[in-house]
Amino acid sequence: MFTSVILAAGMGTRMKSEMPKVIHRVCGKSLTGWVIDASKKAGAKSVLAVVGHKADMVKETLGDVCEYALQSEQKGTGHAVMQAADFIKAHKGAVVILNGDTPLITADTINKAISYHTSEGNNATVITAILDDAMGYGRIVRDENGGVLRIVEHKDASDEERKINEINSGMYVFDSDSLIDALGKLTPNNAQGEYYLTDTLEILLSQGKRVGAYAISDNDEIRGINDRVQLWEAERIMQERINRMHMKNGVTIRLPETVLIESDVEIGSDTVIGPNVEIKAGTRIGKNCVIGEGTRLDKAIIRDNVDILKSVILSSQIDEGTHVGPFAYVRPDCSVGKDVKVGDFVELKNSNIGDGTKISHLTYIGDSDVGKAVNFGCGTVTCNYDGKHKYRTTIGDNCFVGCNTNFVSPVKVGDNAYIAAGSTITEDIPSKTLSIARARQVNKDNWTDKRK
């Protein structure tokens, strides 16, 4: 077990945003949210985020998934970790220091770094990467036994040191007691007047303690996000990870480079995802579904064997064997039953639709409770709003609704009722009743000639 401290206090001016950098999103989750998740998946017993710039906004975004410490003034990485001193003291053992703007770090890498730290008996371990081009990065200078002698910044490095291609990622594993001792000895003796976390390594080395370095295998994991271009690059990498994970779990994704699937999405095996599909966080999709081209799902619950094409479904549930689309719009709080047809240009809102019902095309059903095996003709509308209040329509089982019917809510229709095409229903209809609510047709002979 270990604890995790995540540095998330910076402003991120290069993002050119009113929001703090660390709450910008990659695949539906904030940058720091990804780092917190990686820590917890790795087994962190406690996680603390050091927040600063617009701290309240950061806390609101992250929620109660971690503890917090405030860095009211940004005086360097060492100063940020100082704000977590009480947290670190309260949790003995290994403490992992991570950055809130490196969303690609994985639980596997965190665990491997901790295992290396423990097996080597290190007091501190630097997580490093080996780059083809290390320009601008701090270099890791090792001794003959592989331990870390020092970290030298690029601008201060000699020509020989600049040939080193192992760089500091800014992430570390410390023994908590050693870290607390070194933090107490930090001084801001530099041109910026800041406390650097890297100085703790020199303090530990001067005390004869062991500092090691663990080189990661995937350099993408240390990518920091400083501007919108880097945000896009990280999202591209994360999206490929997510899509590959679903494909390895038995999901077919056609043209995966066009498919956007956010974090925290579940998809059952043998489901097929078509091109240009967007699936937002919180969506659950069952087995043997077809999510066709151009579909958008947001917090949708899709049961097994559902077929959806070019449609939008928001915060609603679609039961087994139902067909939706093309061009259907299912707004929040809908529950659609089994073997239902929701056809082209159908809009549902805050409604319950019973099993076997057919809503084939050009229909709006809002604030309604619809029974089983109802057939809606083209152009049906539930008139649920009188300008001030919303009202519900209730339609029983096995009803037949003719084309161009208007239901003026609130109104109730009993089981097995028939409604003639073109009717405007303003009163309740009893069961097994034919309702005709339209003016009698009148033909006026020679009316056109008279009008002329």
Number of helices: 9
In CATH, the topology of the largest domain is named Spore Coat Polysaccharide Biosynthesis Protein SpsA, Chain A
When the domains are counted, the total is 2
Average pLDDT over all residues: 96
Helical content band: 10-25%
Task: Note the overall shape.
Answer: elongated
Strand content: 25-35%
Tell me the structural class.
alpha/beta
Give the number of DSSP strands: 39
CATH architecture group name of the largest domain: Alpha-Beta Complex
CATH C-level of the largest domain: Alpha Beta
Distance between the ends = 92 Å
Determine Rg (CA atoms, Å): 31 Å
* Poorly predicted spans: none
Query: CATH homologous superfamily of the largest domain, by name?
Result: Spore Coat Polysaccharide Biosynthesis Protein SpsA, Chain A
The description of the largest β-sheet is: 16 strands, parallel
Keywords:
UDP N-Acetylglucosamine Acyltransferase, domain 1; alpha/beta; 16-stranded parallel sheet; Spore Coat Polysaccharide Biosynthesis Protein SpsA, Chain A; nine-stranded parallel sheet
Structure, described:
With 452 residues, this protein is α/β, with parallel strands linked by helices. It folds into two domains: 2-222, Spore Coat Polysaccharide Biosynthesis Protein SpsA, Chain A, CATH 3.90.550.10; 243-435, UDP N-Acetylglucosamine Acyltransferase, domain 1. It has nine helices and 39 strands. It has a 16-stranded parallel sheet that branches. The chain has a nine-stranded parallel sheet with strand order 14-17-20-23-26-28-30-33-36, with no helix packed on it. The protein has a seven-stranded mixed sheet with strand order 5-4-1-6-10-7-11. Strand 8 and strand 9 form a beta hairpin. Helix 1 packs across helix 5 and helix 6 crosses helix 7 (198-206). The longest helix is centred in the middle third of the chain and has 21 residues, at 228-248.
